[in-house]
Amino acid sequence: MQGVRRGARAVLKYFAPLMFFLIVVQVLLAGEGIFGIKKGPKLDDQKTLDPHRFLGFLITEPIALLFLIAALLAWLPDKKLRWVSVGLPLLTFAQAPLAWGGRWSGMFHPLNAFLLLGLYGWLSGRLHRGARAVTDDRAAAPATAR
Length: 146
Description:
mainly alpha
């Protein structure tokens, strides 16, 4: 199981910055879509937000599920990192219902996106800085007798 954890931790180390980057792209696509809105059709009928919707679906459904699986397999030794790495995909799943819910839940959609952006950035930094600490802990830990 230790090999699986080591591999999942390596995956998370590069997966978290990827999620950060995808959320930045999402914000850019939202801005481009909003400023491309034309008068006439209702907002739901606008095609300018389709790239934002498509990438949002990919991030909140299959990609967040893969991140959750990797986080559970990695089961990071630091409790704060563990809770953040497992909680982030759950917050990511919440993005879609926030957008669907209409005006009053929709106002939390961009707020949650910026929260996710900050947390994925923080996690990325901690995983890259802490990679040496995790390997040092493993090397310093005494071998257990079987």
